[in-house]
Amino acid sequence: MQKIFTATVVATLALMAIACNKVDPLEGAVERKFYLNAELTEPEEETGTYIKWNKGEKTVFRFVLTHPDDKDIADDELSEIFWIEIPNNIPSFEYDSKTDSGLGEMELYYTRACYCYFEEGFNITSVRVKGSKLNQQQWSVEFEMESSGKYGDYGLEDKGTYTIDTFDWD
Fold first, then answer.
1. Which residues does UniProt assign to the signal peptide (predicted)?
2. Euclidean distance between the first and final Cα of the chain, in Å?
3. Contacts with 64 (C-beta within 8 Å, 6 or more apart), sequence order
4. pLDDT tens digit string along 41-72?
5. Pairing between strand 52-55 and 107-114?
6. Is this model's pTM higher than 0.85 or not?
7. Strands (DSSP E) along the chain, which ranges?
8. Fewer beta carbons under 10 A from the terminal one: N or C of the chain?
């Protein structure tokens, strides 16, 4: 009887340890990248629905949260993208829409991407963002933002390390 009890306790503890280390599939996938010598522009039509990025003289940060796929719904994949553009060669940046009067040379955008296509643009209504360069390959960036669109309000926040990436402009 003692052996059965001990085996049950050990098995329960092992299952708990595995469950505690398991990644929650509802969290989604996160991508944090930054690009040198890039530039963001909004399209003249459909403002806020997507962002164009090209070669330029700025540093661009791109945060992507891809929500988990629901196997019971076709083409439901949704990604939320938060963009930050700053001048090249600055070691840090900070902005809070509640206390600061203007973005200066910083630009911020929020978009949502889905196979189903969003025809709505999004306006950032509140934002707090700050970042500091850790080295040539990494930045520490954190943000909290709220936006409004035609069909609702959306919030997004993150704190993490962004790594350098490249983009083939040709």
1. 1-19
2. 72
3. 29, 30, 31, 79, 80, 81
4. 876 665 556 688 889 999 999 999 998 877 77
5. unpaired
6. no
7. 29-41, 52-55, 58-66, 78-87, 92-96, 107-114, 123-135, 138-149, 152-164
8. C
